[in-house]
Design a protein that fits this description.
The two termini are about 15 Å apart. This protein is about 35% helix and about 15% strand. Strand 7 (about 125), helix 6 and strand 8 form a beta-alpha-beta unit. It has helices at about 20-30, 45-55, 70-80, 90-100, 110-120, 135-145, 160-165, 180-185, 190-195; strands at about 10-15, 35-40, 60-65, 85, 105, 105, 125, 150, 175. The protein is of the alpha/beta class and about 210 residues long. A four-stranded parallel beta sheet has the order 3-2-1-9. A three-stranded parallel beta sheet has the order 6-7-8.
Length: about 210
Amino acid sequence: MAGVLGGHQVVPVVVLDDPGRADDLGAALVAGGLPVAEATFRTPEAAAVLRRLAERSDLLVGAGTVITADQVDQAHDAGARFIVSPGLSTAVVRRAQELDLPVFPGVSSATEIIAALDLGLDTVKFFPAEANGGLPTIKALAAAFPQVRFVPTGGITADSAPSYLAHPAVSAVGGSWMVAPGLLAAGQWDEVTALRGDRRRLPAGLPHP
């Protein structure tokens, strides 16, 4: 996923139900040094939000919470550059592969990682990260699967992200601290920009968002 994201290691996970706010959100993320977003399929207007964000030339946008092959098609039509799923669906992965879209299914166990490898994948979303043991669990799984890279998401904060990113098996983290629903609903775009995370706290030698 690091290659897909162009070196950006913090991916804002966006839940937005108003396409009219997408432009302001995109501008706030870019201003904060995070020109990337995972627009989730958690609202009726998700595809429209994704399309508005994807129209920006300065923002890399993927689709999140994709759980059906039909949603993969919707995301592709809206301009998504990558697909993220909370679980491992063969139908979702296969459809994304047919459309030449990078896909990152959610896993939380060795069994699911093996299934992802069988599908030809080597980067997976570890979800929900904190609820499944966080970094210690990733360390244990990485020892058994050295060829796999992880994108932990779920409960990640600005304070915990640097510890995750310091592990060599972690390509990126997904987080919502800078795009909390309350901030988006209130249109607090300056706060979105300010909360993108402190770059100085990222581990030395890593590409900064």
